[in-house]
Fold this sequence. Notes:
Blueprint: H1 17-22, E1 29-30, E2 42-44, E3 50-52, E4 61-66, H2 71-87, E5 92-97, H3 104-112, E6 121-122, H4 128-132, E7 139-143, E8 149-154, H5 162-172
Parallel strand pairs: 4-5, 5-6
Antiparallel strand pairs: 1-8, 2-3, 4-7, 7-8
Amino acid sequence: MLSGCDRSGDESPQETKAEASEAAKPGEIDRSHAGDLMPAANLADPEGTVLNLGALQGRPVLLNLWATWCAPCVKEMPQLDQMAADYGEELNVVTVSQDMGDPAKITAFFKKNDINSLPPWIDPQLSLGEGIGASTLPVTVMYDRTGQEVWRVTGELDWSSDKARNAVQEVVDML
């Protein structure tokens, strides 16, 4: 499963030094997975409504995996909520909790932190992280209108920054 919150792992034995040096650093936009398809996954909200990620094709999707116990994740949530409010129907901002246990803690987190533009999605099988190849939190993947990955960010990013907004806008403007 997910090994930790915003923790960059050591080079794996299978990686060559060249491959390891090409990997994006935490908090940087990484285009090395461009073209990968959004995994087929069903999400649920605390009331039991189900969302199939495949149903989101047609609009760009900014998919964020986070958890209430992850400090960088918690810091990003208000910024992602604002992004969802700013983009409205142009962009699907989908934040998916990787918390285990009672889904009520997600609802309570959203209420406590005034997260109003994002639905509280949960990954009930905790399989989405594996599906996108994530080993840490937070991780955010930008998909185009056809469900193909454009870029990802592992670790914290200031989603209110020009760097982040320009990267998102680039994908929103793609036909």
